[in-house]
Amino acid sequence: MAIFLTKDSKVIVQGMTGATGMKHTKLMLGDGTNIVGGVNPRKAGTTVDFDGTEVPVFGTVAEAMEKTGADVSVLFVPPAFAKAAVVEAIDAGIPLAVVITEGIAVHDSAAFWAYAKSKGNKTRIIGPNCPGLITPGQSNAGIIPGDITKPGRIGLVSKSGTLTYQMMYELRDIGFSSAVGIGGDPVIGTTHIDALAAFEADPETELIVMIGEIGGDAEERAADFIKENVTKPVVGYVAGFTAPEGKTMGHAGAIVSGSSGTAQAKKEALEAAGVKVGKTPTETAKLAREILNAQA
C-alpha cells in the first residue's frame, strides 16, 4: 500500500526539458516511476530520449492528461513562472501536483492554494519548496533519492528535505510505505495532518514518523489531530532546538517569536498527545525501531 502515489500513477513533468527537470526525470525513471510525458509549450510535439526511453513533450497539462491519462504532475518550473504552472495544473484537474520549486513568493503560493480550494480541492498540492514523495519500489515523484531505503512498514511526513533523507537512511532496514516531504514554506498545500490522516487509513503503515521544525504552529495542530484521530504509534522529531529566538532559520516558515513556534513548545505538545519525540534524528529512529520491535 501507499499514500498519494502508487506504481499505477501516471506522471508528467512540468519543466521537464530544463536542466533540473531533465536530471530528475532521468532519476525518477530509474526508480521505476511511470513518466508518461513532459510539458513545455515551446517544445510541444517533440520527444526526449532518456537512455532509450522516449518521453513525449506536450504543450499543456490538459493535453498531456488527455493523451496519456496522467494523474500526477511534478513541477520543476522557475519561481517566477511557478504560479502560472500550478494554476494550469489545477485548471486541467490533475489529482496531484508536486511543486518542487524553491523560492516561490509566498503570495504566489497563497494564491494557487486558494485557487485549488476554490476549485473544490480536486488537485492535491504537495509543496512548494519540497523534495516530493516516494513510495519505495513503486514510484518516486520529486528529488528524494530512490536507493536509500526499501518498501516497508513506516510512514514518514517531514517539513525538511534533508531530514527526510536522513530518516529514510536511518530506518532503511525496516523500510517505508511512503515518505512525503511537505516543504517548509509558510504556505504549503499538503500538511502534516493530511499525511497523518492518510497513513492512519493505510493498512500497511504500522508506525508514523513526523518531522517538524521551529516556526509556526503546524506541529501543535498536528498534535491535537493525533490525540483525537490517530491510533497508530507516532514518533516525532523537531529541528531547531538550538535556534535563537526571533531568528529566521533556513526555511522561510521557520521563524520563532516568543514561546510560540519553539522546538520545546512543539516537543511538549507532541508528547502530551502520546508522541515519543527524539532529541536527534538518530534517537528518533531508535525510538521508532524500539516500538516496532515491541509490536513484533
UniProtKB/TrEMBL annotation:
Source organism phylogeny: Bacteria, Bacillati, Actinomycetota, Actinomycetes, Kitasatosporales
Enzyme Commission code(s) on record: 6.2.1.5
Catalytic residues of the enzyme: H251 (tele-phosphohistidine intermediate)
Annotated SUPFAM superfamilies: NAD(P)-binding Rossmann-fold domains, Succinyl-CoA synthetase domains
Positions that bind substrate: Y165
Keyword Nucleotide-binding in annotation: yes
Residue spans crossing the bilayer: none
Keyword annotations from UniProtKB, A to Z: Ligase, Nucleotide-binding, Tricarboxylic acid cycle
Start and end residues of each CoA-binding domain: 4-104
Pfam families per the UniProt record, alphabetical: CoA_binding, Ligase_CoA
Native source species: Streptomyces roseolilacinus
Protein function: Succinyl-CoA synthetase functions in the citric acid cycle (TCA), coupling the hydrolysis of succinyl-CoA to the synthesis of either ATP or GTP and thus represents the only step of substrate-level phosphorylation in the TCA. The alpha subunit of the enzyme binds the substrates coenzyme A and phosphate, while succinate binding and nucleotide specificity is provided by the beta subunit.
InterPro entries for the chain: Cit_synth/succinyl-CoA_lig_AS, Citrt_syn/SCS-alpha_CS, CoA-bd, CoA_lig_alpha, NAD(P)-bd_dom_sf, SUCC_ACL_C, Succinyl-CoA_synth-like
Protein family: Belongs to the succinate/malate CoA ligase alpha subunit family.
Record carries keyword Nucleotide-binding: yes
GO biological process: tricarboxylic acid cycle
Protein name: Succinate--CoA ligase [ADP-forming] subunit alpha
Superkingdom as given in the UniProt entry: Bacteria
Record note on quaternary structure: Heterotetramer of two alpha and two beta subunits.
Residues noted as binding CoA in the record, renumbered to the chain: T17, G18, A19, T20, K43, I100, T101, E102
SMART domains per record: CoA_binding
Name of the encoding gene: sucD
Molecular function GO labels: nucleotide binding; succinate-CoA ligase (ADP-forming) activity; succinate-CoA ligase (GDP-forming) activity
Database matches in Gene3D superfamilies: NAD(P)-binding Rossmann-like Domain, Succinyl-CoA synthetase domains
Reaction equations catalysed: succinate + ATP + CoA = succinyl-CoA + ADP + phosphate; GTP + succinate + CoA = succinyl-CoA + GDP + phosphate
Pathway: Carbohydrate metabolism; tricarboxylic acid cycle; succinate from succinyl-CoA (ligase route): step 1/1
